[in-house]
């Protein structure tokens, strides 16, 4: 049995028939073909699969595709606009907030929502909000710096 | 070589890798999609130890979408090879798919190939395996005892090897005449690597060509190709191509050849279709090679002045159920050889029993042997300081090896000859940054108020850049450990660099471009770096042991030297000058004394390819391939300090300050080095406080998800304060030492020492890691009784 799903991802409308059990992250990666959203665990710990769904950063491994029917989704591929990097992306680059890059899409999505909610976050706030994202390379130091830097540049704009 | 003094070497240049990663355009193995691709799912043993009485695949084959089901009876390729031998070692066969018996939870038993990943999972669930459970053993010391479960008929007492290093008689004598002996049993607990990208592979066999292409999460594509083609699949290397594209972290776990890539390659060859497998995290916990897992008794002897006179170590090292690719190396030559640390120790004797148990194989994990040695030494130093009533820093100072920076190595009693070292300044700087003396006063004040501050100090030494090939060979290596570097200059003067080392987060594309542009005096944008594809790069040994810059970088420099030499001849020819009268600076050969007479890098590159006017007898073209075989390891060192507060009521630890002073020799890109130090510290802290791969006594893994295995999180860690001293290595032309593992090695004992320092008023002298709230609370409660 397959069910129809329709959603908008990064401004483009997609409709497919999928198995009800198909995870949203697999739909995004395998069916739509946007591979920037990653899978790093199977228990909703690592946050590599984070996307923005209807204004919320969510773990796309923890939703079925059919639950996202009708949703507006932004993935890491949709964060830069018209070829211009988002200030958060610039900040991760500038502050060396990534090494292997695998957790990075999820980190940027989390930072995106964090700075929407708290435009001037303290270091402690940033660290607390990153609790759902794991990075094994950076020790988080430069990720925190990158988000602080992004907050500054975004405030200046 | 004026060019090396220009600004690129040593500059914090932003990484050129990053634009693809921050926009979601990285290309990892799981992103590879091929026409006609099938998907693999593995059936894994739920038992630590069991006979396989039968496997029924009929219902799995009937699952819609399932293409094939294979067991160990079908996939009869060679066992997974072990690449390091020790004297008297017993090497049990490690089958790709278990046949007859399983020996650890998670061991692959069958593989299902299907049209979709979901159908493959359905198929795997439908495979019925009839197991006859056997008693299991997970502890390396218990595995040695009589009556313990036996893994292999031909490995008595589960002892895979017995290895020693050092002088037993001299060490025994030192202990006999010691003024003070400090002893401490230690467990260096099992860790599970957890690169955030799970392992994955895509194998595509082209029957018409007889060629196999394997995309795999690897730190060393050529090692994968060599071992798989020659020892497992039995095909010519020339018919196999291994690609390690963007790889999402390794930390050692992606060095090794695993069951899955072999099974998937064999299946692709058998089916004539591409096959993909991507680990679920639970599979990573079960079958990625784990790290550490030592049970040790250590004793240190001192004379009356607090100088170390001897060190005696007995370690049972857990190797897991089978030998992973480099397993025997880690608890032997990468452990016993580091037991002198930065200290002058006249006599050392170390015995290691390499034990097989019903657990996942154990191999190199970031630091690999060196963290175990450092933890042992640095815990003993703190224990000794406590017992001798000396400040821990003072005790360390008394025992430091004096500076040696003139190229004369320092010979330890455990084989290694350190390349260069100046240990005191790094310690001094770390203490300054941490405000050590002030912190001790604050600690005393805090204790009066019932608050428990702890100050932990650790020095460390690390051996990087494996290795002189002849030495490695004499010690049991199945490979030479040199590195290749090819530099190809194009007619316009732009350059492509091919390195045998591999980046899985280290930023080679930036660092090596920086190095080459610096040496040639050309813009970095004119340099491309290629790695990770056996069809493009010359044979190389890959990346581990912090070797990329000090071995791989040095190989690139050898090629640059050859190219500059040829370029000079062409320039001299064009300028009608004597080549000895030319200087090469800022991308230009000029005649000394008349600087207007010059040929640019581009002029020379173009002429090398036009070949209209080059010296008689010279071959056209401008490229070179070099292989650098280092004369010695490099030995980075440093000192770290942590200040923590322990809540004695809850056992919670808060890190208030973390200071790292490392000496990694000369630094190409300080931003990248700092980043690696940060990440290393987090992993080291993780071992000290949270991470623990726990097996039940009979071999069931209790920590097989990220909910059960505590990886460090952002809100548990502080900002790190770091600095460097610079003691160039004489071993390579760049003077670099290696920076990938220093943080992991130092941070574990630093934080463990800090926590135990905080608990000193309770009389608690040691707790085995991880120092979780539970363990701390229990130790404090027991001490209060």
Could you give a quick summary of the protein structure above?
The complex is a heterodimer of chains A (157) and B (785). Helices cover 34% and strands 16% of the residues of chain A. With 157 residues, chain A is an alpha+beta fold.
Helix content of chain B: 25-40%
Strand content of chain A: 15-25%
Query: Are there runs of chain A of 5+ residues with pLDDT below 50, and where?
Result: none
Per CATH, the architecture of the largest domain in chain A is Roll
Number of strands of chain B: 28
CATH topology of the largest domain in chain A: Ubiquitin-like (UB roll)
Query: For this entry, what is the oligomeric state of its chains?
Result: heterodimer
- β-strand percent of chain B reads 15-25%
Q: Largest interface, and how many residues on either side?
A: A-B, 59 and 60 residues
Structural class, from secondary structure content of chain A?
Answer: alpha+beta
Mean pLDDT of chain A equals 97
Which whole number gives the mean pLDDT of chain B? 96
What is the CATH superfamily classification of the largest domain in chain A? Answer: Beta-grasp domain
Terminal Cα span of chain A:
50 Å
How many extended strands of chain A?
A: 5
Describe the protein's architecture and organization.
- The complex is a heterodimer of chains A (157) and B (785).
- A five-stranded mixed β-sheet of chain A has the order 2-1-5-3-4, sandwiched between helices.
- The model of chain A has no long low-confidence stretch (mean pLDDT 97).
- Chain A has two domains: 3-78, Roll (Ubiquitin-like (UB roll)); 87-154, Orthogonal Bundle (DNA polymerase, domain 1), CATH 1.10.150.120.
- Chain A is of the alpha+beta class and 157 residues long.
- Chain A has helices at residues 24-32, 87-94, 104-117, 123-129, 141-156; strands spanning 3-9, 12-18, 50-53, 56-59, 72-74.
- In chain B, 28% of the residues lie in helices and 24% in strands.
- Chain B contains 18 helices and 28 strands.
- The longest helix of chain B is centred in the last third of the chain and has 28 residues, at 548-575.
- The radius of gyration of chain B is 27 Å and the shape is globular.
- The model of chain B is unreliable at 1-5 (pLDDT under 50).
- Chains A and B meet through helix 1, helix 2, helix 3, helix 4 and helix 5 of A and helix 1 and helix 16 of B.
């Amino acid at each position: 049995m397959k069910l129809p799903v329709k959603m908008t991802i990064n401004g483009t409308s997609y409709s497919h028939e999928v198995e009800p059990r198909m995870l949203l992250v697999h739909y995004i990666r395998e069916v739509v073909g946007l591979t920037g959203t990653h899978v790093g665990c199977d228990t909703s710990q690592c946050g590599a699969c984070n996307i923005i769904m209807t204004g919320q950063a969510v773990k796309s491994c923890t939703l079925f595709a059919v639950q996202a029917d009708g949703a507006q989704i932004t993935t890491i591929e949709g964060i830069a606009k018209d070829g211009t990097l988002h200030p958060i992306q610039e900040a991760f680059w500038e502050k060396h907030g990534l090494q292997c890059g695998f957790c990075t899409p999820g980190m940027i999505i989390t930072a995106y929502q964090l700075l929407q909610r708290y435009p001037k976050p303290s270091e402690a706030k940033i660290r607390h909000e990153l609790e759902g994202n794991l990075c094994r390379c950076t020790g988080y130091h430069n990720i925190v710096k990158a988000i602080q830097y992004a907050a500054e540049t975004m405030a200046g704009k | 070589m004026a060019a090396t003094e220009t600004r690129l070497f040593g500059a914090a240049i932003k990484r050129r890798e990053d634009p693809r990663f921050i926009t979601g355009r990285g290309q990892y193995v799981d992103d590879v999609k091929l026409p006609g691709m099938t998907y693999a799912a593995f059936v894994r043993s739920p038992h630590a130890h069991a006979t396989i009485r039968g496997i029924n695949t009929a219902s799995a084959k009937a699952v819609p979408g399932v293409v094939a089901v294979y067991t160990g009876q079908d996939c009869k390729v060679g066992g997974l090879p072990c690449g390091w031998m020790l004297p008297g070692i017993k090497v049990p066969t490690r089958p790709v798919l278990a046949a007859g018996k399983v020996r650890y939870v998670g061991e692959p038993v069958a593989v299902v190939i299907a049209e979709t990943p979901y159908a493959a999972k359905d198929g795997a669930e439908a495979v019925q395996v009839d197991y006859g459970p056997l008693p299991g053993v997970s502890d390396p010391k218990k595995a040695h005892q009589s009556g313990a479960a036996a893994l292999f008929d031909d490995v008595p007492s589960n002892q895979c090897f017995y290895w020693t290093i050092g002088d037993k008689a001299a060490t025994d004598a030192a202990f006999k005449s010691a003024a003070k002996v400090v002893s401490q049993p230690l467990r260096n607990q099992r860790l599970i690597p957890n690169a955030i990208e799970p392992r994955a592979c895509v194998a595509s066999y082209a029957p018409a060509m007889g060629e196999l292409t394997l995309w795999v999460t690897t730190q060393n594509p050529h090692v994968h190709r060599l071992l798989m083609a020659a020892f497992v699949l039995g095909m010519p290397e020339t018919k196999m191509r291994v690609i390690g594209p963007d790889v999402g972290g390794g930390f050692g776990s992606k060095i090794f050849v695993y069951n899955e890539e072999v099974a998937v390659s064999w299946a692709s060859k058998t089916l004539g279709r591409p096959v993909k497998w991507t680990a679920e995290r639970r599979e990573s916990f079960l079958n990625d090679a784990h790290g550490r897992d030592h049970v040790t008794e250590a004793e240190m002897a001192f004379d009356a002045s607090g100088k170390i006179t001897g060190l005696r170590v007995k370690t049972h090292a857990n190797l897991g159920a089978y030998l992973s690719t480099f397993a025997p190396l880690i608890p032997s030559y990468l452990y016993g050889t580091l037991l002198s640390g930065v200290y002058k120790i006249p006599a050392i004797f170390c015995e290691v029993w390499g034990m097989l148990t019903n657990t996942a194989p154990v191999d190199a994990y970031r630091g690999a042997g060196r963290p175990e040695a450092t933890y042992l030494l640095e815990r003993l130093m703190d224990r000794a300081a406590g017992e001798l009533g000396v400040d821990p820093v003072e005790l360390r100072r008394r025992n430091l090896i004096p500076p040696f920076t003139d190229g004369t190595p320092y010979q330890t009693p455990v084989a290694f000859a350190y390349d260069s070292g100046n240990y005191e300044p790094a310690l001094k700087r770390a203490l300054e940054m941490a405000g050590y003396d002030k912190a001790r006063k604050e600690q005393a004040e805090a204790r009066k108020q019932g608050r428990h501050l702890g100050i932990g100090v650790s020095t460390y030494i690390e051996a990087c850049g494996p290795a002189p090939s002849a030495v490695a060979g004499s010690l049991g290596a199945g490979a030479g450990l040199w590195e290749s570097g090819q530099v190809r200059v194009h007619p316009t003067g732009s350059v492509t660099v091919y390195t045998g080392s591999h980046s899985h987060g280290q930023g080679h594309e930036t660092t090596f471009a920086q190095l080459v542009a610096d040496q040639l005096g050309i813009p970095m944008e004119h340099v491309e770096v290629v790695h990770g594809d056996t069809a493009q790069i010359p044979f190389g040994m890959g990346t581990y042991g912090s070797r990329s810059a000090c071995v791989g970088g040095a190989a690139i420099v050898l090629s640059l030297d050859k190219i500059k030499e040829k370029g000079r001849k062409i320039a001299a020819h064009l300028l009608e000058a004597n080549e000895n009268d030319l200087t090469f600076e800022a991308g230009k050969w000029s005649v000394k004394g008349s600087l207007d007479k010059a040929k640019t890098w581009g002029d020379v590159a173009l002429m090398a390819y036009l070949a209209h006017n080059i010296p008689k007898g010279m071959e056209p073209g401008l490229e070179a391939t070099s292989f650098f075989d280092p004369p010695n390891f490099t030995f980075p060192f440093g000192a770290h300090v942590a200040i923590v507060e322990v809540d004695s009521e809850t056992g919670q630890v808060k890190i208030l300050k973390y200071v790292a002073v490392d000496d990694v020799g000369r630094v190409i890109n300080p931003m990248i080095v700092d980043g690696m130090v940060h990440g290393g510290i987090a992993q080291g802290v993780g071992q000290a406080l949270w991470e623990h791969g726990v097996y039940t006594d009979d071999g069931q893994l209790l920590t097989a998800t990220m909910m059960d295995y505590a990886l460090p999180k952002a809100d548990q860690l502080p900002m790190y304060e770091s600095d460097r001293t610079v003691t160039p290595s004489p071993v390579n032309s760049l003077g670099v030492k290696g920076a990938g593992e220093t943080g992991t090695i130092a941070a574990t004992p630093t934080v463990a020492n800090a926590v135990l320092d905080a608990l000193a008023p309770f009389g608690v002298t040691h707790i085995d890691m991880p120092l979780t709230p539970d363990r701390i609370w229990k130790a404090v409660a027991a001490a209060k009784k």
